[in-house]
Amino acid sequence: MISAELRDARKGFTALIKDALYPRICPGCGRASDRAGRCICWDCFGRIEVLDGGLCALCGNPLTGNPRSDFICALCRQNKPSFDRARSGALFSGIMRSVLHDFKYNNALWLTADISDIIEGVLSVGFDVNSIDLVVPVPLFRTRERERSYNQAQVLAVELAERLDRRLDTRSLKRVRATETQTRFNAAQRRVNIKDAFAVVRTQWIRGRTILLVDDVMTTGATLSECSAALKRGGARTVYAVSAARR
Predict the structure, then answer these.
(1) Global pTM?
(2) Which ranges of the chain have pLDDT less than 50?
(3) In CATH, what is the architecture of 48-246?
């Protein structure tokens, strides 16, 4: 078996060769990227608004002022989510907005490593990574996934599972009914729209496990909460939710 260090070294060397032959163009400034194996250059990467303080202890919602570390936001107090903790890597603004839009809708899968870097950063400070048993993506309904040809959350989950050296599970959590897009709904409407849209179909893989639930963007947390509720009904012990960005 190849060690993680050797695998990372091989990937790094391959990235250097590819970058020399086919320079990566930064989606933020249009110049060749100076980050080996990545598309976003260091200058643009430094402009991403990382979420690293002043957050709701439960959902990770950015808060004004300087709240104490265990502060729970009003949204979570009114409607407690089913996940045990959620965190997002950055604000959905600036380059993150354009990067995630292209990643989700324009097949820009070459941005997977850049986006995963943001998520991996928040994982290292916001969660006990050693306690995670399974990495599970938020599923798309089958017709939506066929239309798009891929599930952006699953692409990220695959990358993160490899980086964390954890088992990936894309089959146990299913979206069992189609829902309207959440983008035009308020928080209450989102909860109604997504209610009972997910189910665990392989409880033997979920029961007693600590799950890392992965999505690209978090808004009110309704989708992540409903997925977490299904995972808890399926026997999950703990559900951590993570996304690349927060609206």
Answers:
(1) 0.87
(2) 1, 21
(3) 3-Layer(aba) Sandwich (3.40)
